[in-house]
Amino acid sequence: MNNVSRRNFLRQSSVFAAGLPLAGGLVLSPFPRAAAASEKVRVALIGSGAMGRGDLATFFLNPEVDCPVVCDVDDKQLAEAVKLVKEKRDATPDTVKDFRRVLERKDVDAVVVATPDHWHALPTVLACQAGKDVYVEKPLALTIAEGRAMIEAAQRHNRVCQMGAQRLSSPTYAQAVDFVKTGKLGKVGLVRAWAYLDWIRPIGSPADGPVPPGVDYDMWLGPAPDRPFNSNRFHFNFRWFWDYAGGLMTDWGVHLIQVLLWAMGPEPPKSVMSSGGKYVLEDNSETPDTQITVYEFPTYTLVWEHKVGVGLGLYNRPWGMSFTGTEGTLVINDSGWEILREPTKDALEPKKYPGGADPRPAHVRNFLDCIKSRQQPIENLGVGHHVSTVAHLGNIALRTGHKVNWDTQAERVIADPKADALVSVSYRKPWQLPYLSPGR
Ligand SMILES: NC(=O)c1ccc[n+]([C@@H]2O[C@H](COP(=O)([O-])OP(=O)(O)OC[C@H]3O[C@@H](n4cnc5c(N)ncnc54)[C@H](O)[C@@H]3O)[C@@H](O)[C@H]2O)c1
After folding, report:
1. How does strand 133-136 pair with strand 161-163?
2. Domain around 42
């Protein structure tokens, strides 16, 4: 990568943008400029499933947060969200099934988008257009091109947006990342992240069936291809179907690869290879239960691994991340981190450090602070897009069986139309995503 394209990449990915003020321009928000810390923030929830309710409960840890309206396409999920708001705020929120009704409201400052991945981009873009700030769950979107359109929307409308991969807000992870950056591990040429998840079970192969009462299924599908209702392709298990998500490569990959990239810097990968399949799960899910992805970065190799049905992962941890240097290896997950010395070296002192608290409250607090200060949050869309792109490239390599060479400046797969087609997605009519780059 030459200097100009490298500079452009840094600008585009905003990997270092935390703390920068937003550019001037159209501002519709009730928070056009810095506001007092105590000022109310009225948050609407879009997608009130397990994670959406978890996010909302975390927002409620902050006394200035109210929730005037919750949105879901399923009455049952809406009822659960109403229960939560009543419990935490002693108030009954309005309920709607069409998120566009949320965006029209003047009593909403920010939205939490916790829908399935195929429904992250459009609500985020339209929320930005409507002058709302956005906390959007990970991965940033279903595809790379959608992520770029989301960045464009946030920039054009001066919005504060945070992606919800919370470990970036963990002081414990920050300490470990700082240690890697000291260089004490020596030259780090190999970093790995793995998720061996023994709790994932086969989900069977139910026949297509009637849409459950109280569900607006057409709105659940949204921009995804039309098809009959299947109970597996719905709440939670949507993760295992390509129309809506990317399996564990993106679901867990974004969380764990985020930590690796945080320590290793913002350079993009040059190429990606991936191999895997469904070897264990006998059900109608589509994404691989076993996958290994190898990324070639300019100065190191990154390896992603996932495996379901077993829990014996690397370094005796079911999931985690490791940084292997010439002097030793740092291994980390939520239960703590440790430094392992190379058997033939003595520069490093082997040591163990405990895990820290759940970083989600700090991640949400950072978003709320930025809404008021109009600074960029720690996992702004540039940061979220960078890690999500890395994860998506793994699936593009897997699905094509090709080694993918990535042009980060153009955000295109080099000389491979089949792989490049998977960078974008075609929306089912009448849905359209504004701000897609030309040719996407
Ligand atoms: N940050 C984390 O640690 C973490 C953990 C779990 C899940 N997630 C992310 O959160 C998102 C949701 O995951 P989940 O497990 O809660 O899924 P879920 O299926 O339990 O919930 C999604 C909800 O969105 C609703 N929905 C679908 N289309 C909608 C629309 N057009 N408008 C409004 N609501 C709509 C569904 O009816 C459902 O209630 C995913 O993107 C996932 O990757 C993040």
Report:
1. parallel
2. 12-168+360-375
- Best residue for ligand 1 mutational test, from 69, 72, 364 (most atoms within 8 Å of Cβ): 72
Domain assignment present for residue 335? The answer is yes
Indicate the pTM of the whole model. 0.94
3-state secondary structure of 60: coil
pLDDT tens per residue across all 440 residues of the chain: 333 333 333 333 333 333 333 333 333 455 666 777 779 999 999 999 999 999 999 999 999 999 999 999 999 999 999 999 999 999 999 999 999 999 999 999 999 999 999 999 999 999 999 999 999 999 999 999 999 999 999 999 999 999 999 999 999 999 999 999 999 999 999 999 999 999 999 999 999 999 999 999 999 999 999 999 999 999 999 999 999 999 999 999 999 999 999 999 999 999 999 999 999 999 999 999 999 999 999 999 999 999 999 999 999 999 999 999 999 999 999 999 999 999 999 999 999 999 999 999 999 999 999 999 999 999 999 999 999 999 999 999 999 999 999 999 999 999 999 999 999 999 999 999 999 999 99
Same domain, residue pair 275 and 155: no
Contacts 24+ apart (CB under 8 A), 224-232: 224/118, 224/428, 225/428, 226/428, 230/206, 230/284, 231/206, 232/203, 232/204, 232/205, 232/206, 232/283, 232/284, 232/285
User: Structural domain tally of the chain?
Assistant: 2
Rounded to the nearest angstrom, the distance between the alpha carbon of 99 and the centre of ligand 1 is: 14
Ligand 1 centre distance from Cα of residue 76 (Å)? 14
- CA 293 – ligand 1 centroid, Å: 26
Pocket (CB within 6 angstroms of ligand 1): 46-52, 71-74, 77, 99, 114-117, 119, 137-138, 164-166, 219-220, 222, 235-236, 238, 251
What residue's CA is closest to ligand 1, atom 16?
A: 51
